[in-house]
Amino acid sequence: MRIFVKIQPESGSEGKFPADYRRIFMSLLKQAYECTPFEEIVNSHDRIPKPYVFSVGFNRIKEISGDSIIFESPVFFNFSSSIPQMVGYLYNYIISQTSIVNGSKVAGVNLPVPKVITSKTVTFKIMGSAVLTRSETERYYVSPEDDDFEEALNYSLQVRLNLLKGFFEKFSVKVPDFKPVRVVNKNLKKVPVKHYGGYIEAFSGTITLDGSPDILNFLYENGMGVRTGQGFGMLKVVKEWR
């Protein structure tokens, strides 16, 4: 289930965010889920996967100067989770606010009809960028051209399914059993992303995956890869192959 929020900066036509703007929206989520059943997992600093994903999009980036991004409004904040209650709490919080994220105003909120993937092969577009990692410290980040890209993708998927199973079931959401996906095609490029004072080796573009529709739905609703709770890995369906 998804929610799309259109945000208008206070100045109207132009706005400025820190270059590592994702942390602003992480703070927004912490505020939205305060005193709710999701407060603990949203606020957790442990290396536990999050049961949601978000992305931030800009109408047009005009300039990246030092530690700031200057953009042409509006800004689009997108959030997704398999847990309907999470989306509901966020929706109620956003519509109750006169301003959010640096004094910006909510210019529109959309709750689209949930999409259910029924095909075994789907082409996804990454909304923003995604991140994959290895467990070892050397060559920590996985690049699109690496031989173990598919292995790392399946490992992150299996870890998320195993660790989040109990949490999802608390809210009557059935988590599928792990089945590996196969990378049919990928048109991805590496992108360095500023995040919390450093840089993350992320990637963006499109990827075609073959697998169980239940697994593909899980990725679509909760994100691909790691750091989904930090604004990485949200997917958009480009095409379902029949």
Q: Extract low-pLDDT stretches.
A: none
**Oligomerization category of the chains in this entry:** single chain
Helix content: 10-25%
CATH topology of the largest domain: Alpha-Beta Plaits
CATH architecture of the largest domain: 2-Layer Sandwich
How far apart are the first and last residues' alpha carbons, in Å?
23 Å
Order of helices and strands: EEHHEEHEEHEEHE
Describe the fold and architecture.
It contains five helices and nine strands. The mean pLDDT is 92. Helices cover 25% and strands 35% of the residues. The radius of gyration is 17 Å and the shape is globular. The strands form two sheets. Strands 1, 2, 3, 4 and 5 form a five-stranded antiparallel β-sheet that branches. A four-stranded antiparallel β-sheet has the order 7-8-6-9, with helices on one face. It has helices spanning 22-32, 39-43, 84-95, 149-170, 213-222; strands spanning 2-8, 14-18, 53-65, 68-80, 105-110, 121-126, 182-195, 198-210, 235-241. It has two domains: 2-110, Alpha-Beta Plaits, CATH 3.30.70.1890; 121-241, Alpha-Beta Plaits (2-Layer Sandwich), CATH 3.30.70. By secondary structure, it is α+β, with helices and mostly antiparallel strands.
